[in-house]
Design goal:
365 residues; alpha/beta; Aspartate Aminotransferase, domain 1; Aspartate Aminotransferase, domain 2; 2 domains; four-stranded antiparallel β-sheet; 13 strands; 40% helix; 16% strand
Length: 365
């Protein structure tokens, strides 16, 4: 959709990237790192200064085990690389991995490239967890379950009770849990992000994926990290050393220094994105679109059934080419989408003037 938006000079609310820059002080620190000669390979696991500040933060936030910066954190060139390395390390040929649709589009291909079999379970019609279906799909070949919270594309947040139910279902198994938590610092209203690493019954068998690209509004920097107990991390690192070996050095030094000097920075991310969500949502309330709840991340799902009965891919194309606003059809996140679903995803991590121009168009439909 981004290519179509560019071709037709449409406002791009489809791809999930912020329109605004990272904090000025962070950019200054990147420049300082570049100019001071920090331009060569980092250690494979990442710069220790960054791993130490991450471990300190996670231990402050509360984890079920003490995060060790030497053994439990691996810096990677973007969360997708962390996902790929995890699947390659922990999934063997013929293993089954459960993912819940709608799902981020890199999961299934990465599982298949590891020789695994993606078992895709759609969320319930109200987007609640399909616990009974999950139970029915578990087998002696199931090695991993993938959870995404806050969720892309739905913007929903996995609750403490959700984690406890998952723990109950797999309590007598060796099934691993991969939790994609790249939007962990974008949670709104009374909701709270609950990491899988906070759940005692799951933490020792879990891998959590995080993204500085999302947290710093700098997706092009491709910087993230993987957190897991040492026995899992060592396997992930065996793959990662031959996948990329090291992440961007100057960004790592800059991130460590910035976080040390801004101990509450992450709180500002939720505040910024909640303000954006509210601005966009209040504007859309004057339209014929129906808004689904957005509890986290930077995506708003809208139901356009009051406007058109076109399939979502057709409506998204029409919206882009004729009305010059691009969104993503939610069917793109499914293996077998519901043909009656009339949903689009808009990214609201944009400047207010861009959001307002979009709203002016969308409210005329």
């Amino acid at each position: 959709m981004s290519a179509l938006a560019t071709k037709h000079n449409a406002i791009n609310l489809s791809q999930g990237f912020p329109e605004f820059n990272p904090p000025d002080d962070l950019i200054r620190k990147v420049n300082e790192s570049l100019l001071s000669g920090r331009n060569q390979y980092s250690p494979m696991a990442g710069q220790l200064s960054l791993r130490e500040v991450i471990a300190e933060r996670q231990n402050t936030w509360g984890r079920s085990f003490e995060i060790n910066p030497d053994t439990d954190i691996t810096i990677v060139p973007g969360a997708t690389a962390g996902l790929f390395a995890t699947f390659q390390a922990l999934v063997q040929h013929g293993d089954e991995v459960i993912i819940f649709d709608p799902s981020y589009d890199s999961y299934a291909p990465a599982i298949a490239l590891a020789g695994g079999i993606p078992i895709r379970i759609p969320l319930n019609q109200d987007f609640c967890m399909p616990w009974e279906q999950l139970k029915s799909k578990l087998s002696n070949r199931t090695v991993m379950i993938v959870v995404n919270t806050p969720h892309n594309p739905l913007g929903l947040v996995f609750t403490q009770s959700d984690w406890l139910e998952l723990a109950r279902i797999i309590q007598n198994t060796d099934i691993l849990v991969l939790s994609d938590e790249v939007y962990e610092h974008m949670v709104f209203d009374e909701k709270q992000h609950v990491s899988v690493l906070q759940i005692p019954a799951l933490a020792n068998r879990a891998v959590a994926i995080s993204s500085f690209g999302k947290t710093f509004h700098a997706t092009g920097w491709k910087l993230g990290y993987v957190t897991a107990k040492a026995e899992l991390s060592v396997e992930i690192r065996k793959v990662y050393q031959f996948l990329a070996f090291a992440a961007n050095t100057p960004m790592q030094f800059a991130a460590a220094e910035f976080l040390l000097q801004n101990p509450s920075y992450e709180n500002s991310v939720s505040e910024i994105m909640q303000t954006k969500r509210n601005y966009f949502g209040e504007g859309l309330s004057q339209s014929r679109f129906q808004l689904l709840p957005c509890e986290g991340a930077y995506f708003q799902i809208v139901d356009y059934s009051n406007i058109s009965d076109l399939a979502d891919t057709d409506f998204a194309n029409l919206l882009t080419t004729e009305h010059k606003v691009a969104g993503i059809p939610v069917s793109a996140f499914y293996q077998n989408p519901n043909p009656d679903q009339r949903l689009l995803r808009f990214c609201f991590a944009k400047n207010n003037d861009t959001l307002q121009k979009s709203l002016d168009i969308l409210c005329r439909l």
